[in-house]
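Notes on consecutive records. When two proteins share a document, each keeps its own sequence and its own token line. Never mix them. Below: protein one.
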Amino acid sequence: MLEINGLSVCYGAIRALHAFSCRVGQGEIVALIGSNGAGKSTTLNAVSGIVPASGGSISFKGEEIRGIAPHRIVRLGISQVPEGRRVFGRMSVLENLEMGGYTLKERKRLKEGMERVFSLFPRLAERRNQQARTLSGGEQQMLAMGRALVAEPQLLLLDEPSMGLAPLLVEKVFETIVEINRMGTTIVLVEQNAHMALAIASRAYVLESGEIVLEGSSADLAVDPAVQRAYLGGAV
């Protein structure tokens, strides 16, 4: 579904990604793990068209999307949940979800999309008229995910969904990610909680300084000594 070949991204003189290549098959959950500054978020932002690439290609369902405007990429079927949630604080839960469905021309599809979100996150249904800034951190994460899902994406890009959440909420978020995948949405997951990421992903890539240093099935990477030492706190 998604193929990235030789992707390079620079921020001025700083090279964030260098000759990065990966693939994501339809129906998969693929994780990107690595330390801060490894290039994980940059990868998602390049796919979404938020940051320009200086080299390489990005194709979605066989179509080159590098250089396409972000709003057009959303219309193609790719949605992103940004790091830090970034909900519209002064807008209600309902208004945030409506913003997520701005590409849907038919009101009926927007309503159906919202109902799917409310079935995944009943708490949002209870707070539909509440301002987003008054929600808890966990509820804001639900809203950020719901906002991305309203548009019925085929590919969902998740950037650090567990950041700042209590352990019980982290488990709930990851259970929901699995459920979203079971409903047919392909997922690319950027996550510093390597334990959880490898537990739900089918495959993973390990990034260091903008380059892939390891890749393989999540089961294999979970027992790789280098991954255990760097990201899993020793042997597991």
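Protein two starts on the next line and is unrelated to protein one.
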Amino acid sequence: MYAAIVVNWNGCAYLPRCLDNLLAQVPAPAEVVVVDNHSTDGSRELVQSRYPQVRVVDTGDNRGPCHARNVGAAAVTHERLLFVDNDVVLHPGAVAALLARMDQDPRAAMVQARSLCGDDENVVHYDGGDLHFLGTLVLRNWYRPRQEADDPDGPIGAAIALCFLTKRSVYQEVSGFDENLFILYEDNEFSYKLRMRGHTVWLCPEALCTHLAGTAGLSVRGEGRYPGRRTFLHSRNRWYVLITCMRWRTFWLTVPAQLLYGIVYAAFGVRRGHLGDWLRGKWELLCLLPKAVRARKAAQRGRTVPDRDLLIAAPVTLNPGLAEKGFAAALRRSLDRFFCGYWRIVRRLCG
């Protein structure tokens, strides 16, 4: 038995495929809730007219997917929770595979489905990843042909939150998703909180889903234009996650590398005309610091695993077409080598 929570904002065009495939799963969800971030495109009316068995919860405002997931978790009663974004289409057998994978490991707290690209289902979009000590995610099989994708032989470092199964008790234990993030980096923060308490995160390659359009004005597909809003959120949220989730010793030991990465990312933003977005992100980060300190106390409560056993250093994941040629590619390789060497030096000292 499980409850399904669909997160929606102005997804009227996607909801029928999402809900039809969700309701056709075997086993079917015992309850389905669409948490709507006060859409203006008729989403709520569509669900109420076509899917009377589905409950709609209107949040009253668009406070992002983090808030919507927390509202959804509080609105259902079952222990196992399936979270699905509105632009995700589950393949037959996906939920059964997720449930089976969770049953294999008593410590499993989050199991992600393998996400395929909406414009080409032969290409992997999201396959989870690992927590880089810089606060970013090192993504697995990123835009890799599906037939070439490697399957993990154990837990992974972090999951992407577009389609995943979790346990209500564990979700409550880590206080759900941090709503101060709104969107972007919430996957890092949630996975980090789970793993620092000794829970495991899994990818289930047998559970397939197709990820359609992504979030308007934020998602980057293939070599598409990098939006300024993403620069703003990256500028703000990466440091927020570092402050809330890292042990202070780890934080201060890695500050030189964090600052270097931040400078490079700022230059990247300037090059694309996003200086204002980058600066606004830093200003909002300063405004969020009191909330980050309070969130840190809750995040660190119950921690049993040190950062040196959670974080890695590996080539940073970039979107296709970014820093693949010329000086940019050479700089990227040099920075990756520097960060990997830096982590080797400080890792054993980290808390």
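For the record: The longest strand covers residues 200-211.
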